[in-house]
Design a protein that fits this description.
The structure is a homodimer.
Chain A: E1 8-13, H1 17-26, E2 31-36, E3 49-51, H2 58-64, E4 69-72, H3 79-85, H4 95-101, H5 104-113, E5 121-124, H6 133-136, E6 141-145, E7 155-158, H7 161-170, E8 176-180, E9 186-194, E10 200-202, E11 206-211, E12 214-220, H8 225-242, E13 246-254, E14 260-266, H9 284-293, E15 306-312, H10 326-331, E16 335-339, E17 349-356, H11 360-373
Parallel strand pairs in A: 1-2, 1-4, 2-3
Antiparallel strand pairs in A: 5-8, 6-7, 6-8, 9-10, 9-11, 9-13, 11-12, 12-15, 13-14, 15-17, 16-17
Helix pairs in contact in A: 1-9
Chain lengths: ~375, ~375
């Protein structure tokens, strides 16, 4: 094999479903994956060399350091792990980008510095930051921890100074960001990949619907040209300002006039991009593998309209797991099932179902059917 | 998870690229794969539990017997392995079907018994079978070993009784079939899957071009309705007559008038079905996993026109490996690379490139470009 596709090894910090799907996409590219993940039952064990040790284990990190490059499936990587790896192996994205994306306040400041719009916000890191913060944002907002929040966790909606103080106490008085409410009409997202040499490629503009703070559906119809062009320009500006090496996903609020504000940035593939696995094109997972290893990049907009519905653990009133109707899902044209090999737990992402259709209208109507089959 | 998608384990006899791609398709279905394969460097080791022992190893077979079902990636399974497994675990396809498909003479007889057309043939198993055999087939034919032939190996073209005798000597006087020449206009193939309960599903009708006895390109445009309907009827008849459990692929010769004769049958996914990985639909690999485990079947015709070009090891005049132009392949819209993690060797299948396009005309023109990039 020539240099482009000579055998390579990719290290991943983390071994959950994102690592599993990265590995499934890496293998056909001639890439072997090594996943450092303490959970012995993590999904990536099935298709990667699994280093079942803590994220800061020196022997495990030394094995990762022998890979051609290291990437990550979650942003809250222990700094000690980065300290060990940096200088020994390219870590993509690296500390510079993670400093933004793993910390809500730095992220918002970094987005503004790159020229991207965000919700108004106030940084709450000390008692003295509380006074006047809410008034400055119009009297209501959402208090969010700056670190470690995901899937709606670590957030409190507040409408008075008393509620703000109570919420901050409740969140443990850790550094937070108080965000003003955004009167958005919908949420969309877009992925961008960039190699160390500066080549860029983009994913599709995807429309997302959340339920209980967790992504429920993502839809790509191909009909969002204007919003997509705007999202790409923002993504390009942020990727270049932050020196992205790898792939990141921007979540946006769309305002009534069409303007996009960045809600948050994930330094990796994203749940809203799972639909790219089955639309007939390149998947976001292959795109991240390529970007991290410096392989040629292709855009990853699906040729076909595609959608995704998450399968999240739901307990019924009797405490038993409510099951998707797998038989009916299989019988619906254009569905593909993706399971993560995880045990059921209320609120846990267990898998997703992708749906492709020949046109946007058929996609929307089958998606409505599919949603009825998944609790 | 409900019964349909409760965790399952699939055993595979063999661990090469077909097993690798079966495993990559199985994991998203919640299925773990165990591959019994003596080659320590076999591709399936990357995404399956690899039992690196001989095919007849009792401990290895005992591990396979604990799976929910066992399938195979090659037809020449040692009978001892089947003897051990049968009765302990469902083996799909099993001995009944393999008795046909692994033996060219039995295969042709079984096809005729199922009502399928084949080339005229004479069975050559003893010295006395030689006399008059060629004359009966019009004076020329191809002598093929009944067992163990693949990719054009174990075949000799003959045009006289003297050549026939010499060829049979050359092939070691093993049981052979002498096939009459078929004036075919093209070669096509089609996969059929059948569960133990009798449910059937079909793949696309694919047009194949061989080079030096090895598949070079496969093309699916969706425009072959009449040939596809005929191929399905033949596949259905053979699947039912032979009691298929699992997936098999029929290769056909198309005669000038459009009639299809069955050339041979592979009791598994087939190189000509690799294009189903990237056309936006179900892949042949997912179909085999589902059929073998008795999961609901979906047809696996791609929604988009797709093609495939094999990457086969080619030595240049200087003895160095000739490389595909990977950069140009990546730059061609709609390509996806699939590598098997195998070392270069002249004539060895090392990978394939799939190509999707919005319409048949674009597909054909990009395929011509793609072929120029792959030696």
């Amino acid at each position: 094999m020539s240099d482009t596709f000579s055998p390579r090894t990719l290290g991943i910090l983390g071994g959950g479903q994102l690592a599993q799907m990265l590995a499934l996409a890496a293998i056909p590219l001639g890439v072997r994956v090594v996943a450092l993940e303490p959970d012995p039952q993590a999904g990536a064990r099935l298709c990667a060399e699994h280093l079942c040790v803590p994220y800061t284990d020196p022997a495990g990190l030394a094995r990762l350091a022998k890979c051609d490059a290291v990437t990550l499936e979650f942003e809250n990587v222990p700094l000690e792990a980065l300290d060990f790896l940096e200088g020994r192996v390219p870590v993509r994205p690296g500390r510079g980008l993670l400093a933004h994306s793993k910390h809500r306040a730095r992220e918002k400041e970094g987005l503004r510095a790159a020229g991207a719009g965000t919700a108004d916000f106030a940084v709450i890191e000390a008692e003295s930051d509380l006074a006047g913060a809410l008034a400055q944002l119009g009297g209501q907002g959402i208090l969010k921890t700056s670190e470690l929040g995901y899937d709606g966790k670590g957030q409190r909606r507040v409408q008075s100074d008393a509620e703000l103080r109570a919420a901050w106490d409740d969140l443990g008085r850790v550094p937070c960001v108080l965000e003003g409410l955004v009167p958005f009409t919908r949420e969309v997202s877009l992925g961008v990949a960039r190699t160390a040499s500066g080549n860029l490629a983009f994913g599709p503009l995807v429309e997302n619907v959340h339920r209980d703070g967790i992504l429920r559906t993502s839809v790509y119809t191909g009909g969002d040209q204007r919003a997509e062009a705007q999202a790409r320009e923002i993504a390009r500006a942020v990727a270049e300002a932050w020196g992205l090496e790898g792939l990141m996903t921007l979540e946006f609020f769309e305002l009534p006039g069409g303007e996009l504000l960045v809600n948050e940035v994930a330094p990796r593939v994203h749940n809203s991009g799972h639909l790219t696995q089955d639309g007939g094109g390149v998947s976001q997972f292959a795109a991240q593998v390529r970007a991290v290893l410096g392989l040629p990049l292709q855009g990853w907009k699906p040729p076909l309209p595609t959608a995704m519905v998450n399968v999240v653990g739901v307990d019924g009133l009797d405490g038993q797991a409510l099951e998707p109707d797998w038989g009916a899902i299989d019988a619906l044209p254009g569905t593909q099932i993706h399971l993560y090999h995880k045990a059921h737990r209320q609120g846990r992402k267990l898998g997703h179902v992708n749906l492709t259709a020949p046109d946007a209208e058929t996609l929307r109507s089958r998606l409505a059917e599919l949603e009825r089959l998944i609790p």
